[in-house]
Amino acid sequence: MSALWSVGAGLLLLLLWVRHRGLEAVLVHHRWVFVCFFLLPLSILFDIYYQLRAWAVWRLHSAPRQHAQRVRHIQEQVREWKKEGSKRYMCTGRPGWLTVSLRVGKYKKTHKNIMINLMDVLEVDSERQVVRVEPLVSMGQLTAHLNPMGWTIPVVPELDDLTVGGLIMGTGIESSSHIYGLFQHTCVAYELVLADGSLVRCSPTENSDLFYAVPWSCGTLGFLVAAEIKMIPAKKYVKIHYEPVRGLPKICEKFTEESKKKENSFVEGLMYSLDEAVIMTGVLTDEAEQSKINRIGNYYKPWFFKHVEKFLKADRTGVEYIPSRHYYHRHTRSIFWELQDIIPFGNNPVFRYLFGWMVPPKISLLKLTQGEAIRKLYEQHHVVQDMLVPMKSLEKSIQTFHVDLNVYPIWLCPFILPNNPGMVHPKGDETELYVDIGAYGEPKSKQFEARASMRQMEKFVRSVHGFQMLYADCYMTREEFWDMFDGSLYHKLREEMNCKDAFPEVYDKICKAARH
C-alpha cells in the first residue's frame, strides 16, 4: 500500500510541475518526461495488440481467406469515388501520424480517403523462395514470421515499424544492399488496385512498365494491395568485424573496397567526425565462438552506435557474433541515434536495466503528440535526410555534408543500382555502386538554415546524379525535382491509366514547395 501511495504522490507532483511549467513548455524543453511516462507505456500496448493480432491471424489462417474480400472492398470504394464524379484526389485512409516519415501529410484532410486494412503475411512459398505479403506488414513482423521457418528476406530495412508498402512506394535500404540493391530490387511482383477500380498484377514479365514505375511513386499510380518478395535461407548469426579508420581519404578507400566484396554479406560505416569512422563487415554463419556472442538487441545492452564507438575510442579492431534478428534491427532501440535527443540519459546503464524493455517509443506516437511548437523546432533545427550518391563521389559528398550540416554520426550504407526503367537509375547504361549517406540530428554548422542549407544539399546531390529519399523534407522546385528523377515512364503511365484525376503527382504529394 505504501508503494502505491508513493507512486500516486509522485504522479501528483509530476502533474503539478507540468501545470506550473505549462504543457507546451514541458513538451518542448523536457520532452523526455512525456515520452517516459506516457509514450513508452502506450508504445508497449501498441506492440502487444499487434503481436496478439498477428498470432491470432497465424493460428486461424484467416489472412489468405480474407485478403480477396478486403481487396474487393477497396475496389468498391474506388468505384464509389468514380460514381461521385471523381471530384477529389484519392489517398489511403491510414492516418498520417501512423507513417514512419516525419513529414506531416496535410493532403489526408482534403483527399478522398480509401480505407486499406491489409497488414498480414499471406503466403510463404519455400519452393519459389518467395513470400507474399500485404502492404502494411512491418519489417519486425515479417522477420519474426520468417526466421523461425529458416527464411529471411535479402534486404531488411532497419526499423521495426517500416512497412512493405512504404518501402516499395518510397524506398528501403540495408547493409546487404551492396549485393541485392534497394528493397524494390528484391520484389518480384506487385498487385495494385488502379484508378478505374481494376485489380492488376505486375512483374518484370507481366505489365512490366507498371512494375518498374511503382517504386518511388508514393502511391500516385494505384493502391498497393500485395507484394511478392524474394526469400533467402536464414542463418543464426552475423559474424561482424569492426575496424576503426582515420583520415577521410582512407575511410572512403576502405569503405569502397569492402563494398565491392561480394563475400561480405553486410557492409556498413559509422562516421563519428569528418576524419573518424568505424567500418563494419559481416558474414552470415550458423557457427559462433560462444565467448564472442553479443546479443545486442537485448533491452539492457548499450545502444549499437555507442557500442561501435568503443572500438574507435580504444583504437582496436574486433570480431563479434550477433544473432541475425538482433543484427537486422540493431539500430531500432535507439532509432539510429535520434533517441539520445529525446531521452538524453537513455543509454545510461540504470535506465537500460530498469526501463530499456520499453524502448523505443513508437515513431508514429512521437509524431502524433509532437505539437506545432516541436514540429517547427525540428523543422528549423533538426535534419533527417538520406542522400543516395555514386560511390565515386563519396569523399566530396561527405565534405559537403560536413560543411552544410556538420551532423554526426553519419550512416554510410552501400548499394548497387541497376539500370532498370523507372524514376531512379544510374546515369550510364550499367549497374553502378552507390552509397546512402544518412544524416540524423541537430546540425552544428554555424550557417545552417533549414531551407537554404537543404536546397544547397539538394543542388549538390543533383550535380553528382544522386537522389534524395522522399520520406524526408524536400525543398526542390518541380523542375529541379524532375531533373533529379527520371519521370518519363512515370508520366507516360499516369496518362495511360487516367491517374491525373485520381492521384496527385508525386512532387505535389511530397515536396514542401508544393504542399499547403
UniProtKB/TrEMBL annotation:
- Sorted UniProt keywords: Cholesterol metabolism, Endoplasmic reticulum, FAD, Flavoprotein, Golgi apparatus, Lipid biosynthesis, Lipid metabolism, Membrane, NADP, Oxidoreductase, Signal, Steroid metabolism, Sterol metabolism, Transmembrane, Transmembrane helix
TM region positions: 32-50
Q: Which domain of life is it from?
A: Eukaryota
Question: Can you give the residue ranges of the FAD-binding PCMH-type domain?
Answer: 60-234
Q: What class of enzyme is it?
A: oxidoreductase
Q: Pathway involvement?
A: Steroid biosynthesis; cholesterol biosynthesis
Which GO terms of the cellular component aspect does the record hold? endoplasmic reticulum membrane; Golgi membrane
Gene3D superfamilies tied to this protein: 3.30.465.10
Which reactions appear under catalytic activity for this entry?
A: lanosterol + NADPH + H(+) = 24,25-dihydrolanosterol + NADP(+); 5alpha-cholest-8-en-3beta-ol + NADP(+) = zymosterol + NADPH + H(+)
Membrane topology type: Single-pass membrane protein
- Cofactor(s) required, per the database record: FAD
One biological process term from GO is:
cholesterol metabolic process
Q: Quote the subcellular location field of this record.
A: Endoplasmic reticulum membrane; Golgi apparatus membrane
- GO molecular function terms here? Delta24(24-1) sterol reductase activity; Delta24-sterol reductase activity; FAD binding
Which Enzyme Commission number(s) are listed? 1.3.1.72
Q: What is the predominant subcellular site recorded for this chain?
A: endoplasmic reticulum
- Task performed by this protein: Catalyzes the reduction of the delta-24 double bond of sterol intermediates during cholesterol biosynthesis. In addition to its cholesterol-synthesizing activity, can protect cells from oxidative stress by reducing caspase 3 activity during apoptosis induced by oxidative stress. Also protects against amyloid-beta peptide-induced apoptosis.
Family, per the entry? Belongs to the FAD-binding oxidoreductase/transferase type 4 family.
PANTHER family found in the cross-reference section = 24-DEHYDROCHOLESTEROL REDUCTASE, DELTA(24)-STEROL REDUCTASE
Q: What is this protein called?
A: Delta(24)-sterol reductase
State the organism of origin. Answer: Certhia brachydactyla
Q: Write the gene name.
A: Dhcr24
